[in-house]
Automatic annotation (TrEMBL):
Annotated keywords: Hydrolase
Signal peptide start and end residues: none
UniProt organism field: Gelidibacter maritimus
The keyword Nucleus is assigned to this record: no
AB hydrolase-1 domain: residues covered: 21-179
Name used for this protein in its record: Alpha/beta hydrolase
Superkingdom of origin: Bacteria
GO cellular component: membrane
Classification via Gene3D superfamilies: alpha/beta hydrolase (3.40.50.1820)
Molecular functions (GO terms): hydrolase activity
Amino acid sequence: MSKIHANAIELDYEDHGTGKVLLLLHGLGSTKKDWDAQVPFFSKTHRVLTVDLRGHGNSSKPKDAYGVELMTEDIKAFLDQLDITKATFVGFSMGGAVAFQMAASYPDYVEKLVIVNSGPDFNDMGSIGEELLKSRTEFLETKGLDPLAKEISFNMFPEPHQLDLRTAFETRCKNNDYNAYYKSFVTLMDWGLGDQLEAIPTRTLVIGSDMDYTPEAFKQAYVSRMQNASLKIIENSRHGVVIDQPEAFNRELKKFLDHE
């Protein structure tokens, strides 16, 4: 692990392999360990960077400065520090929001875009978003982070054979700083690209799961608004597809990367 000073904070990251750059961005309340099943596979052919976003893992945890826009500025500064001018961005859940914002704000940096079980408008998801914001905020304020980590992990990995995955994810989630998690969550739910989505020129793959929190139709609706995007649904998978179906996910991502 290494640290880089970027945008007035410290970002903890790992750097594996050589070649074209693949930047992997994790989900809310997690860390770069979301990508443990991708790094060994893709670092054979690419330079793979994984980073703990602000407020997460071993990166800085500011008191008040959170939000997708700030995380995007962090990532731009991070790439600048490493003299990287172009990368394929792969963003899972909250990481997908950061990848989307990067493609909208700094398209020259984004060679290809991969969005995993995420969306372009967390602030405009209808009843799904409203219920998530209300229920999770109330849960955090009344019960705390540990019970929330247990519930989220069970919902993501409920099968008996997924016990190890569930336990590992729950531990990652429990280790969050409460304030950092809370502010990352509420600012994420206040974020959206709106009409900027249609202006993104980047070749994009959206990967969804058949049992994700949002249905296939939700993802197809925003894919159809984009200039150059396609959707792939992975079967027998919940929200954490990069973890619960890594072989199928890696296969689809490789196919996309290989196709110029």
